[in-house]
Amino acid sequence: MSSMLLSTIPQVSSSLSESYCLTLLSVQTKSKKTLARPGVKNVVLVEGVRTPFLLSGTTGLLQRTGLPKDAVDYIIYGTVIQEVKTTSILRHNINQRTLGAGFSDKIPAHTVTMACISSNQAMTSGVGLIAAGQCDSIVAGGVEFMSDVPIRHSRKMRKTMLSLSRAKTLGQRLGLIGSIRMAHLSPELPAVAEFSTAETMGHSADRLAAAFGVSRVEQDEFAVRSHTLAKKAQDAGLLQDVISFKVPGRDIVSKDNGIRVSSMEQMGKLKAAFIKPHGTVTAANSSFLTDGASAVLIMSEEKALAMGYKPKAYLRDFVYVSQDPKDQLLLGPTYGTPKVLERAGLTMSDIDVFEFHEAFAGQIMANLKAMDSDWFGQTYLGKKSKVGTPPMEKFNLWGGSLSLGHPFGATGCRLVTTVAHRLQKEGGQYGLLAACAAGGQGHAMVIEAYPQ
Amino acid sequence: THTFYEVKGDVAVVRINDPNSKVNTLSIQMQKEMAEVMDEVWANDAVKSAVLISSKPGCFIAGADINMIQSCNSADEVTTLSQEGQKMFERIEKSPKPIVAAINGSCLGGGLEFAIACQYRIATKSKKTVLGTPEVMLGLLPGAGGTQRLPKMVGLPSAFDMMLTGRNIRADKAKKMGLVNQLVDPLGPGLKSPEERTIDYLEEVAIEYARGIVNKKIPIRKEKGRMEKIQDYVMSFEFVRNQIYKTVHSKVMKQSKGLYPAPLKIIECVKTGVEQGPVAGYLSESQNFGQLARTSESGALIGLYHGQVACKKNHYGVPQREVKTLAILGAGLMGAGVAQVTVDKGVHTVLKDTTVSGLARGEQQVYKGLNDKTKKRNITSFQRDSILSGLTGQLDYSGFEKVDMVIEAVFEDIHIKHAVLKEVEAVVSPHCIFASNTSALPIKDIAAASKRPDKVIGMHYFSPVDKMQLLEIITTDQTSKDTTASAVAVGLKQGKVIIVVGDGPGFYTTRCLAPMLAEAVRVLQEGVDPKKLDALTTSFGFPVGAATLADEVGIDVAAHVAEDLGKAFGSRFGGGNVEVLKTMVDLGFKGRKSGKGCYIYQPGLKTKEVNPDIGDVLEQFRMTPNPAVSSDSDVQYRLVSRFVNEAVLCLQEGILKNPLEGDIGAVFGLGFPPCLGGPFRFVDSFGADKLVEKMRRFEAVYGNQFTPCQLLLDHAKDSSKKFHK
């Protein structure tokens, strides 16, 4: 899957390279100040693509023509549910399978993991490598195969199996085998639960929504909004980062298949999914976990221009934040947004495009309420007053994780690409993305439109 | 006002908030207002249901007002109180409008009886939410319908367990038992603080449920599971129930030796209710409640309760500096124990020993202590690991300049203590406090080596530190008030009940214990078997027998203390021959820790046998008992009177500031019979004159070890003199 993503980048990009001469002339921004800083390399997003986020299982790869051999210096991939094999699989996917397509087997690659913001971490690691002058072009992305997560044996069983491999005599082996009980055989199913609190994310989201007094209706309304906007964007062909993908044994899939616009009445019928029976978070107002992959090509500005690419956006300041994983698990955007704005020297009103990761409708509403609360700003953010909320007419206008789906590791790249595309489409200058992640972590980034 | 209500839609929200206290109690005033409010709620046609909730974070209703019970002058008066409570809760139970109890924080005693009279209960899963019937610990019984409603609600076995142990039940367990119907998660910060928002949320959810009950959408009783049906069926046989009463009764007798009337009365009330119906049951409950409230046992236990509350306060003000880093010298049983109760409160703790093996053993002890908590699900493995990250083990004094307090738990030898004190003072910053965890060495002797004796104090912990509640703090004439305040603050943080006593050999606790142990050795020398000695002491009310106690303390420690204090106090501390203990030590019988003492200890075995070799030792030092003072009762009083006399002498000499701390120290540190309430309350209730009379009889045989001290004589002469009013 990954190789396909990578191989599409030059195709899209080369079509844009005709306007190369033009862009060189108009590097200066027209209206507001630019965030370019002396001594800091401009890092640009050249292209971003993703597979449709699929509710059904997908495997396999599509062979396409690849990047020029020397186009990429380094590959970083984000993934969450990981096993030892993952890195080699990725390398396998990224490099070996695409040798025929022109990929070099000399490109090193590694994976990173930071829960739901893994691909954000992949991208910002790439930005770091470019800014440090170590690389000029990076492919960053994220991939998640929710339908085939590794399921581990229980710790007792693992211990027995490991001891078994070290047992020397038949007697020792038989003794160990004899020690296996029923309890050994029950597998450890991976849950979307916090390591430190053993609470599932949905449960935490429900408590968070309750803490901020977010009603069930508010959540359902926001979920319907997300699906409606996603449908609109899909129908209008705005989701141009999606590339078709052939599911083996099935048809080619070319769009996200989780978008379902429902009525409020239908939404209201669902029972609480986590806190039963009086909770407010349901299956319909939560993001759904899907298979999916996404990728971006990021380069230093000089390199991109030298190679004839028309960059889509500058990747500017970014921050990572972390807070109490129990009661503030999903408040990353509230903490990250003011921090990244401060770094960039911008205010809320400077931002034209907001893209927040929609883990749960209740989580988004809770974040909005937290940002709108003087008490919260003073007590927990150390501010004089509230942060302020993003205006809804600039907020997640092409749908979000609630409607498009949320393959843990792949959502970050979708957010970046969407911000870039929306800036182009809507003619804005600054975009801000923010996301929450397990462990009480969060991320926010400012993106500046590349002059048209 | 204690109680008021507001109507939200068709639900009346009744809020409880005692304006004069941190906790809500069912005082007379509260009950009166509650009755008025409920009458209004019942009369208000707009109201279809009610929610009962407390506005106090961390407390629903903590129980009945103890002072209200104590201020009664007769059993009948208390019975009337009980009957009024019963009547009120009967009205609640029969309320035509469903009442939902929304419980956040402690819901104990009368509070729980109130809650179980309601039609539905919702509790928060907060750690502070606990339900229970602790009356038995005050020598009382649940006197407002608890003995009648609980068996119906949770079944006979669970009801007995709750009422006879008095233990706190957390919300999730309560749900499983059927004590509460629904749980609500505590919330984090939102637009208000977590505590406030959690109460609001609980109220919102409770209102929803109240409406649901009225609309018949929420069933009041949940469908019984198969196991419950089987249990009900089994319980329907009279002989099964009788078997339960019998088993519970014999268990209570075994554990309480019949010294505590309350548990037996609880069984009686439950039995009456189940077998003869509610009218007889409620009557039995109120009458027994009245009688129990007038018993000396209840008086003693309530006295201890008040004392415990008083000893959980810092009477020395706020220390200038908070202790953020605490260092402990010596990673032995004591040192590691202190480390455990410190580090788990979030204080950075340094554990220093001189050897790698000693340090490793100590760190393992802390790990095991916390891991056991993990196994019991008191803490998660993540919390365990995060707590342990606050513990630094080391062999040198590096980083001691950042330490705010040092507690030494090294070997009991004045020269070693001096060496350690000097080493510490060479490296720590000027504000650092030096505390010695010695059980007998006078603090001023230790402080003699100090450059800053105002920063030297004694902190005497009891083993095992994580189980024993008492901390005895010893101040010298030179110890500054701020040093004391700081030591008390640390002790309170460690969860201790604290007495602050004056300096002297053995301070208070060790000094009281030593004569009793000396007497115990004499009793053994006179040919009493260790098992018999244990039986005599436990049947007097000591939780641990004298022989077992010696093994637990350590025969070597006992020998050491006996010798030290013998030197300091002379023949008054005589009795048994110290050589008995010394010979035992020489033979390796150091008590439980060495596997052999008065008894033989085998790992994994719960029963213990008398050490057969001890017979030879005792034979060597055999004494002939005098039949005039060797009856079972005389032996008991020989042991107890020496303890008590020494305690009174400590008060007379000013080692103790007041009788209250003396009682708390004796009960929580040495296991003095709780039903007697401590040595001072014992003198009050037993009669100083009677005690003196017994002592004079023993004195005639054994001499000055039984000479009553002046203060005791004063009390004997004037029967109006009491230690406790």
Automatic annotation (TrEMBL), chain A:
The keyword Lipid metabolism applies. Keywords: Acetylation, Acyltransferase, Endoplasmic reticulum, Fatty acid metabolism, Lipid metabolism, Membrane, Mitochondrion, Mitochondrion inner membrane, Mitochondrion outer membrane, Transferase, Transit peptide. Residues 59-302 form the Thiolase N-terminal domain. The keyword Cytoplasm does not apply. Residues 309-448 form the Thiolase C-terminal domain. It is found in: Endoplasmic reticulum; Mitochondrion inner membrane; Mitochondrion outer membrane. The active site is at 116 (acyl-thioester intermediate), 406 (proton acceptor), 436 (proton acceptor). It catalyses: tetradecanoyl-CoA + acetyl-CoA = 3-oxohexadecanoyl-CoA + CoA; an acyl-CoA + acetyl-CoA = a 3-oxoacyl-CoA + CoA; butanoyl-CoA + acetyl-CoA = 3-oxohexanoyl-CoA + CoA; decanoyl-CoA + acetyl-CoA = 3-oxododecanoyl-CoA + CoA. One of its GO terms (cellular component) is endoplasmic reticulum. Heterotetramer of 2 alpha/HADHA and 2 beta/HADHB subunits; forms the mitochondrial trifunctional enzyme. Also purified as higher order heterooligomers including a 4 alpha/HADHA and 4 beta/HADHB heterooligomer which physiological significance remains unclear. The mitochondrial trifunctional enzyme interacts with MTLN. Interacts with RSAD2/viperin. Mitochondrial trifunctional enzyme catalyzes the last three of the four reactions of the mitochondrial beta-oxidation pathway. The mitochondrial beta-oxidation pathway is the major energy-producing process in tissues and is performed through four consecutive reactions breaking down fatty acids into acetyl-CoA. Among the enzymes involved in this pathway, the trifunctional enzyme exhibits specificity for long-chain fatty acids. This is Trifunctional enzyme subunit beta, mitochondrial. The lineage of its organism: Eukaryota, Metazoa, Chordata, Craniata, Vertebrata.
Automatic annotation (TrEMBL), chain B:
InterPro entries: 3-OHacyl-CoA_DH_CS (IPR006180), 3-OHacyl-CoA_DH_NAD-bd (IPR006176), 3HC_DH_C (IPR006108), 6-PGluconate_DH-like_C_sf (IPR008927), ClpP/crotonase-like_dom_sf (IPR029045), Enoyl-CoA_hyd/isom_CS (IPR018376), Enoyl-CoA_hydra/iso (IPR001753), Fa_ox_alpha_mit (IPR012803). GO terms for cellular component: mitochondrial fatty acid beta-oxidation multienzyme complex; mitochondrial inner membrane. It is found in: Mitochondrion inner membrane. The keyword Acetylation applies. Its EC number is 1.1.1.211, 4.2.1.17. Residues 326-503 form the 3-hydroxyacyl-CoA dehydrogenase NAD binding domain. Residues 506-601 form the 3-hydroxyacyl-CoA dehydrogenase C-terminal domain. The record marks 460 as: Important for hydroxyacyl-coenzyme A dehydrogenase activity. Pathway: Lipid metabolism; fatty acid beta-oxidation. It holds the Pfam family 3HCDH_N. Belongs to the enoyl-CoA hydratase/isomerase family. In the central section; belongs to the 3-hydroxyacyl-CoA dehydrogenase family. PANTHER family: TRIFUNCTIONAL ENZYME SUBUNIT ALPHA, TRIFUNCTIONAL ENZYME SUBUNIT ALPHA, MITOCHONDRIAL. Heterotetramer of 2 alpha/HADHA and 2 beta/HADHB subunits; forms the mitochondrial trifunctional enzyme. Also purified as higher order heterooligomers including a 4 alpha/HADHA and 4 beta/HADHB heterooligomer which physiological significance remains unclear. The mitochondrial trifunctional enzyme interacts with MTLN. This is Trifunctional enzyme subunit alpha, mitochondrial. The lineage of its organism: Eukaryota, Metazoa, Chordata, Craniata, Vertebrata.
